[in-house]
From TrEMBL:
The gene is atpB. GO terms for molecular function: ATP binding; proton-transporting ATP synthase activity, rotational mechanism; proton-transporting ATPase activity, rotational mechanism. Residues 13-79 form the ATPase F1/V1/A1 complex alpha/beta subunit N-terminal domain. Residues 359-458 form the ATP synthase A/B type C-terminal domain. Pfam families: ATP-synt_ab (PF00006), ATP-synt_ab_N (PF02874), ATP-synt_VA_C (PF22919). Its main location: membrane. Keywords: ATP synthesis, Cell membrane, Hydrogen ion transport, Ion transport, Membrane, Transport. It is a peripheral membrane protein. This is A-type ATP synthase subunit B. GO terms for biological process: proton motive force-driven plasma membrane ATP synthesis.
Length: 466
C-alpha cells in the first residue's frame, strides 16, 4: 500500500470479541493494514485489519483485547502494512514477530523497514536447486538429501524429539565450502515456555547462536502473533539471502501451531469452516509461506526451508501434513516405533522422501558412490522390514541364511546409520562409509544396486586388499 493513504481516526467500536475489535463507519480500510488502538488511559496497542465489509472493519489486536472498552477508545488506521525493521544485526539475537527484542538486548539500530508479507519470487527467475546442504544427520544426508533452495518439511508426532532435531540441524547445517556465508533463521511459532528456554539455551551453549536469528512467539500469546511469526522470520531470511548474499536455512517450528492460530482467527470471524474446522484458504495460506523459499537467477544467496509440524494423532492424512506435502518437495517423517526403541533421531527413511535429492548428489557434489549406496540402503532396509514381518509369522529359525543376514542388516541400519548423538555431526563421507560398513554384512551378490567399480573401491572386503 502506498503512503498516500492518510491516517484515519475512529472511535465508534460496535463490538469486541476475542482478539477482535469491530469498528463501524470505516469505508476504506485495506486488508492487512496496520492499526493503532489507543485506550482511554493512553495505553497504545497495535493491530491489523483482518476483514473489512460494508462500513465495518475487523481489527485483530496483537496484544489482545483485554481492558479495551468500546467507550473512550480511539482506533487509527495507519495506511500501511505491518513493517518490521530488518537487519543482519538480528543474527545472534531473539525477537518477537513485531521486531521487539526478547533477549534484553537493544532494538535494531540500522536496518530496513520491510513489509513482512514479502514479495513472492517470480517463477521465471527461480533457479533449480542443485547444491547439497550437509545437515550432519545420516538419515537425511545419505538417503533424503536436502538441497539449497528446497522446501523439505519434517513430519513429527506429539512427544517425538522434533525440537532437538530442529536445534541440531540449525547448529550443524552448512553448504560445504561456503561455511562463512551460512545463516539460520529460526521461527518458533507459539512454543511453550520450556521449549523457548530449550532453544535459547541450546543455541547459546553450543555457540550456534552467532549464526542463528530467533523469531519467537509463545503459546499464551494472541493467535495473530503466531501467524505473524513465520512472516517476519521469512522477511529476515529474504533480506539476508537476496540483499546480503547469504545461504539461509529457515526452520519454522511448529506449523501445526500456525494452522491452529489460523483456525482460531477464522472461527472468531465466523467464517464457514473447511476440512477439519480449518479455514478453506489454509492451502493458499500455507503455500504463501512455503513458497517464500528458493534460489533466484543472478543472486548468490538462497533460502532453504525446513518447516516442522506435529501430525495430530500421528495421522499423515490430517489436513496440515496433507496440504504441506502437496506444496513442499518431500518430507522427513519421524516414527514412534523407532523412538520407542531408543533411536534418535527416529527418522523412518521408508516414509521419507526428498524429491530433489537426485540432482544434488554424486560425483563432484557429494561422492561418486552416493546414489548407488543410497538406493542399495533403501532397497535392503525395505527387504529387512519385510523379513521382520515374515519372521514374526514363521519364526526366525525357519528363515534362510540370507534372510537372517537381512534381519541383522535391519538392526544395524537403525542402530548405527539412523541413530546418532544430538551433538554428533557426521560429514557425508562418514555417512557413506557407515553405509558401506553395514551393507558388508549382506552377501555381495545382494548388492544389486551398486556398480561393481564402486564395490571394488569402497567395500570393506576389498579395502584391505589394496
Amino acid at each position: 500500500m502506498g503512503s498516500s493513504m492518510n491516517v484515519r481516526e475512529y472511535s465508534n467500536i460496535s463490538m469486541i470479541k476475542g482478539p477482535l475489535v469491530m469498528v463501524q463507519g470505516v469505508s476504506d480500510s485495506a486488508y492487512n493494514e496496520l492499526v493503532e488502538v489507543e485506550l482511554a488511559n493512553g495505553e497504545k496497542r497495535r493491530g491489523i485489519v483482518v476483514d473489512s465489509q460494508k462500513g465495518i472493519s475487523v481489527v485483530q489486536v496483537f496484544e489482545g483485547t483485554r481492558g479495551i472498552s468500546p467507550v473512550g477508545t480511539t482506533v487509527r488506521f495507519l495506511g500501511r502494512g505491518l513493517e518490521v525493521k530488518i537487519s543482519e544485526e538480528m543474527l545472534g539475537r531473539i525477537f518477537n514477530p513485531l521486531g521487539d527484542p526478547l533477549d534484553n538486548g537493544p532494538m535494531v539500530i540500522k536496518g530496513e523497514r520491510r513489509d513482512i508479507n514479502g514479495e513472492p519470487i517470480n517463477p521465471a527467475t527461480r533457479d533449480y536447486p542443485e547444491e547439497f546442504i550437509q545437515t550432519g544427520i545420516s538419515a537425511i544426508d545419505g538417503l533424503n538429501s536436502l538441497l539449497r533452495g528446497q522446501k523439505l518439511p519434517i513430519f513429527s508426532g506429539s512427544g517425538l524429539p522434533a525440537n532437538a532435531l530442529a536445534a541440531q540441524i540449525a547448529k550443524q547445517a552448512t553448504v560445504r565450502g561456503e561455511e562463512s556465508n551460512f545463516a539460520v533463521v529460526f521461527g518458533a511459532i507459539g512454543v511453550r515456555y520450556d521449549e523457548a528456554l530449550f532453544f535459547r539455551k541450546f543455541f547459546e551453549e553450543t555457540g550456534a547462536i552467532n549464526r542463528v536469528a530467533l523469531i519467537m512467539s509463545l503459546a499464551n500469546e494472541p493467535p495473530v502473533m503466531k501467524t505473524l511469526t513465520p512472516k517476519t522470520a521469512l522477511t529476515l531470511a529474504e533480506y539476508l539471502a537476496f540483499e546480503q548474499d547469504m545461504h539461509v536455512l529457515a526452520i519454522l517450528i511448529d506449523m501445526t501451531n500456525y494452522c491452529e492460530a489460523l483456525r482460531e482467527i477464522s472461527a472468531s470471524k465466523e467464517e464457514v469452516p473447511g476440512r477439519g474446522g480449518y479455514p478453506g484458504y489454509m492451502y493458499t495460506d500455507l503455500a504463501q509461506t512455503y513458497e517464500r523459499a528458493g534460489k533466484v537467477v543472478g543472486k548468490k544467496g538462497s533460502i532453504t526451508q525446513m518447516p516442522i509440524l506435529t501430525m495430530p494423532n500421528d495421522d499423515i492424512t490430517h489436513p496440515i501434513p496433507d496440504l504441506t506435502g502437496y506444496i513442499t518437495e518431500g518430507q522427513i517423517t519421524l516414527d514412534r516405533n523407532l523412538y520407542n526403541k531408543g533411536i534418535y533421531p527416529p527418522i523412518n527413511v521408508l516414509m521419507s522422501l526428498s524429491r530433489l535429492a537426485k540432482d544434488g548428489i554424486g560425483e563432484g557434489k557429494t561422492r561418486d558412490d552416493h546414489k548407488d549406496v543410497s538406493n542399495q540402503l533403501f532397497a535392503s532396509y525395505a527387504k529387512a522390514v519385510d523379513t521382520r514381518g515374515l519372521a514374526a509369522i514363521i519364526g526366525e529359525d525357519s528363515l534362510s541364511e540370507t534372510d537372517r543376514k537381512y534381519l541383522m542388516f535391519g538392526d544395524l541400519f537403525e542402530r548405527k546409520f539412523v541413530s546418532q548423538g544430538i551433538n554428533e555431526n557426521r560429514d557425508i563421507e562418514t555417512t557413506l562409509d557407515i553405509g558401506w560398513e553395514i551393507l558388508s554384512v549382506l552377501p555381495e551378490r545382494e548388492l544389486t544396486n551398486i556398480k561393481m567399480d564402486y564395490i571394488k573401491k569402497y567395500h570393506p572386503a576389498y579395502r584391505g586388499k589394496k
